[in-house]
Protein: ABC transporter domain-containing protein
Organism: Skermanella stibiiresistens SB22
Amino acid sequence: MSQLVIENVSKAFGTQQVLRDCGLAVDKGSVVTLLGPSGCGKTTLLRSIAGFLVPDAGRILVNGQDISHLPPNRRDVGYVFQNYALFPHLTIRENIGYGLKIRRKPKALIRGKVEDALGLIALTDFGDRYPKQLSGGQQQRVAIARSLVLEPEVLLLDEPFNALDAQLRLSMQIELRKLIDRVGITSIFVTHDQQEAMTLSDRIAIMRGGRIEQLGTPLEIYDHPQTPFVADFIGRANLIPVAIRSGRTDSPQPIAAAVPDGPGTLVVRPENLTIAEGPGPGWEGSVGFATALGATIEYEIDRGVGEPLRAILPRQPGVAPLTPGSRVTARIRDEAAAILLSGSPRP
């Protein structure tokens, strides 16, 4: 049985419908990320699980118990806020043990659990310091430890990397995933950053307009998006409008179609395009922009219609990138990796 189950949860604020029939089942010890653009409902769903909001419809269950209408302090759920919410006048030990203290746990038990938590987050020697004396990454670990000492069934994390610089974000993503794996706690993570979602998640729930549009592993979402929105939101994608007739696309490089005839969207990742100088079979155009990215070069190819095509190619040592204005032809490298969806690119 799944440890956390969300059944048809809906929530509105006045006339604005923020969540629409959201459903999700999370197995014990796994990490699920709610990913989507600002305003899609991911934080509202997280706060509904925590008990800060009460759903208008649907149920939220932890270990089979309906917690939908329980107050936050009666839910076995930990919550890590965006700004960590540490008490500046308390030491790190006091911050970590605060929740145990207000629950009137024995002092000896609190001391033991706090020391264990400090060891778990590799801050044993920092227990007597105050939050302002720690780096952003260290403060984040303290905020997580403060939730973990309460031994919640589910840990909720609301964009916990927002306050960190870019270089620290990546290292902390990896450290957080290692920590979650060591503890074995079921976790729900909210972000609008697709790289964070790909790094941290066992599964990703792509949200749009208050609904979960697709749920799957990071590679399932990337390799097999079910809608143009998901294809465009995860990774980078060329969304090419095509017409499907008699089981093939009408594109310059025809692709076999397993979807009904009519309008369609051909999804091609930039790394699945190759380009050659001069005209040829494929999408002809001119180089509009070239960006050298160390081991790769990213090209924008202007076809004179629609969005430019983006291609990412390995950089060949000693070979200069194509210059803007160069006439080129783009082709799909691996047709089996191209994705064909029914409907227009941006419904």
About this structure: The chain has a mean pLDDT of 91. The longest helix spans residues 166-183. The domain at 4-223 is CATH 3.40.50.300 (Rossmann fold).
